Structure formats: C-alpha cells, structure tokens
Amino acid sequence: MKKQKILSVTLNPAIDYSVVVPSFRVEHVNRASGGRRDPGGKGVNAATVTARYGIDTAVTGFLGRENSLIFEEHFRNASIRDEFIYINGNTREGIKITDPKDNVTTDINFSGFTIQPQDTTRFIESFEILAAAYDWILLTGSLPPGLEPDFYARLAGIAAEAGARSAVDTSGEPLRLAAESGAVSLIKPNEHEIKEAFGDIDPADLLSQVEMVLLSKGEKGSLLYCAEGCYEASVPEVKAVTTVGAGDSFLAGFVSALVFGKDHADALAFASATAASKVTKYGPGISEDMPPGSFYDLIRVRKL
C-alpha cells in the first residue's frame, strides 16, 4: 500500500500570543506568569501533529507577507511542506489568555487580511494541482473576509474529483454547506457547532451527507458516527495547561490513525490520546514528556 499524504488547509491562520494568567479577572490588574508567541490556525495545529506522527504533510492557505517569518521557521522545524499562497498584508494576530487555575481560555482576535479575487484565483489553481497529490485534505478554521460561505464545499468538490478524501472542521454556514455538498468524508463539530449549523438534529442523520461525524464533547468525551454505528470515547484524567489546539489535535490524531490503517474504534481512542497529550503543553504539536501513548490505555471506547 502506498504511503498516504495529508494536505492541511488554513485559509485564515493567526499568530497566537499565549499569556498565562492564574485567576484571570476582568476589570482588574492581572499578573502574567508566562507567555509565548506561536504560529496558529486550526490547520497549522493539525499539520504539526500529523507531521510529528511521521506522515508526509503539507500546508496551504493564505499568509500575509509582512509577518510570515514565524510560520516559515515553524514549517522548517516541523518538517512540513509550505504550499501557502503569500499575499499583501499581515496575517491576523490574537491573544489567548489561559487561566490554569480555573482551566479556561479567553480569546481576543484581531482582524487580518481580506482576500482579493486574484488571490482566490491563485489559490484555486494551486489547490487543484495539490489535491491530486494528496490522500486526505483537512479543511479547517474560519473563512477570512473575501471568501464566500460555500468555499469549503467548493474545495471538497475539487478534492473529491481528484480522488482525495476531505475532513472539515469549521462552524456555521460553511460547515452546513460543506456537509450538504456530498463531497466531504468527515466533519468534526463540537456540540455547539453542530447545533448552530444543523439545528436539533440527530448526528446519525448527517450520515446521508457525510461518511463520518466526529463529535467533540470536551471533558465529556467524544462520539463517532459512521456506517457501522456510533462509538463513544472517554476522556482520560489529565492535568491540562491549555485547551488551545486540542480540537485540532483531536482531528489530526483521528485522520492519522486512519492513515495508519486503524479501525474506527481504535482511531477514536488514538484521537483522544492525541488531544490529551496536546493539552499538557503550550504551542502546536504533542507533548514529548506526556506523549499520546501515555494516555492511550486509559481511554475507554464502547459501541452504543
């Protein structure tokens, strides 16, 4: 069997300033105990995990030229192939305030670039070529200004025509339209996102549109709906330092497991272990000190 490859799409990446503030309170002077600056965006986070697992991984999307260096250095260090379209302007930046005492994160996101029609044309031309060279395509995150809500649906259609499977992790109308396209293999909403996009629906009913629904329930675990039924996975006890990137790592772990040939139940456990490892460290990727393997046997998967 040929070695499978993953292309991770991040149309609206960000530079994340992570600040650790124990007992963070609004309308008060807060003292930070630490901080760092990382390349971010759901697809960048996911690609960092799949590359760490040894899977041939590339990233694409849009990057602002003016502050791209942090991304370029990360891609080199993580052995990720850079296929981004570079455009004028700055990639958006955001502040993530993590309170380790209460285990909550507050996001403050700034605006970034607006995609121009010529940028979209360049991206589509590049994506059509890339899609034919990859087996799985991860379509993740929000859409930047300038792109229509059906853009992920459009990309999934291109991927399907090229023989690639796609996984979509977004929200709202872009998620609904992607699922309704019939070209998506997997969607990964959380409980809020699935209700926002589809209303009060039984996730199993979405299997008429997509092959799999991977539903994240945070500390309550996760569910996988697929043709053979529904699987539920528990969450291992873990001392989390941040939840930033946990869902992205969860998706990356699941798709990586499928690439490795694991069945659906094992893939769900592998995804949960990957997310557990991620929350024990700051920045993208999985922990060296608490690797996924240290959590795998603690996760219970059962068929409902």
UniProtKB/TrEMBL annotation:
One Pfam family matching this protein: PfkB
User: Which keywords does this Swiss-Prot/TrEMBL entry list?
Assistant: ATP-binding, Kinase, Nucleotide-binding, Transferase
Q: Where is the Carbohydrate kinase PfkB domain?
A: 15-287
Query: Which top-rank group of organisms is this from?
Result: Bacteria
- Keyword Transferase in the entry? The reply is yes
Q: Which PANTHER family match?
A: 1-PHOSPHOFRUCTOKINASE-RELATED (PTHR46566), ATP-DEPENDENT 6-PHOSPHOFRUCTOKINASE ISOZYME 2 (PTHR46566:SF2)
Name the protein family. Belongs to the carbohydrate kinase PfkB family.
Name the chain's protein. Answer: 1-phosphofructokinase family hexose kinase
